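Researcher: I need the complex structure. Ligand is cytidine-5'-triphosphate. Inputs:
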Amino acid sequence: MQLTKEELKGYFSDDIFAAISETAEKLGLECYAVGGYVRDIFLKRPSKDIDVVVVGSGIAMAQALGKRLGRHAHVSVFKNFGTAQVKYHKIEIEFVGARRESYQRDSRKPIVENGTLEDDQNRRDFTINALAVCLNAERFGELIDPFNGMENLKDKIIRTPLDPDITFSDDPLRMMRGIRFATQLNFQIEEETFESIARNKERIEIISKERIADELNKILASPVPSIGFVLLDQCGLLSLIFPELANMQGVDSRNGKAHKDNFYHTLEVLDNIAKHTDNLWIRWSALLHDIGKPVCKRWEPKAGWTFHNHNFVGEKMIPNIFRKMKLPMNEKMKYVQKMVGLHMRPIVLAEDIVTDSAVRRLLFDAGDDIDDLMSLCEADITSKNEIRKQKFLDNFQLVRQKLRDLEEKDRIRNFQPPISGEEIMEAFGLRPCKEVGALKSSIKDAILDGVIPNEYEAAYNYMIEKAEKMKLKPIK
Ligand code: CTP
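Model: Output:
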């Protein structure tokens, strides 16, 4: 973690940094690399865009640097923000003037004044994000760390540089960022910082839904996403930003029968699937797979607690949740809906005798998402009883084998019924009506049930046979 000044210099060896040094000298300005880029050097994470703070005008610095670098450099100026970006080969550097900011209570828009490096570091979110490395020639590679950011990096601690009430009230998105960093990096949030999040949680309302969704996606993409959701719950943010998920908490017990806590079960499923795949949308599916349970919860004297149809109710809830949270309303949402709606099917198969017909139907309904669905269902087995768990997993292996066998034989995965509605109407001289639908689905059922093979001729003959029973005559 510790690096000598010489080692640290090594991370700034690209030509562009020498050019920054020289330009800064010429203009008589101080320049520092700051923020995520510096933090990630010490964490040995892949580096991204570089932020440079200039004590003076960031725009003037970028323009002078662009001139110096010549035609391979591309400078974009964002006058409204007082920032400028320089692209040089594959490197992108954002220049900003050191600022002193004060915020108003109802807005994230600060009143900005020019400031010193110290002012700039003061207004950053966390000590680990407030590290600066000097890029001026005589102090090149010097680390400026006024808030013990290095110590916090070593001890894996998230803490604000100033009184956390000020830092969070200045920009409430930082509450989400703190929890996100704790999850991504597996850091602890220092006690006072965390208490302040709990105190300031209501301020999250001035943050746009898109930014909140961004942070949630980053939490979900982390190695152990449950860390973030537990923290969101503990500080009280969860019920403000995602009430449906917060609602899943709690255990009811009657006559000595208790159900499991669906929130913690969900988080276990989420962590299980995260070990398996980076796919963000399967992770969302895991997070939402039981979202319908609180609505469907019933006490039945014989069976105890039941959650009948929670998969269908959950599936129906998803468009609303996605709309409210500004998540994409496109095929990603449809995928999550499908996974939630179907998540009980493989387990029913695994519990029962696995018939060809049931497996074909599952293949037909899941299509190309069948492998994801099977992975989700395996992640859903969180029983503490190892024998029971193993039994389920073994049965799932059986279902998977059967899926492979039948797919090879019947090609159901991307199956379209071989006879279309138009063809049926044409064959019997019908207009769109109930009978057309009935014939079409009886052909589909016959194929899925293995009564006839998945072939045109067999389907045609079957249709004529069925139609006869319905007193329909072919016109040719
Ligand atoms: N920053 C801040 N408050 C915010 C956002 C950003 O103080 N709400 C500061 C932090 O010093 C941060 C830097 O601006 O390190 C750059 O922000 P950004 O690129 O959003 O974050 P990174 O820290 O680089 O991390 P990530 O890209 O993972 O978000």
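Model: Summary of the prediction. Residues 35-36, 51, 124-125, 129, 171, 173-174, 177 surround cytidine-5'-triphosphate (CB under 6 Å).
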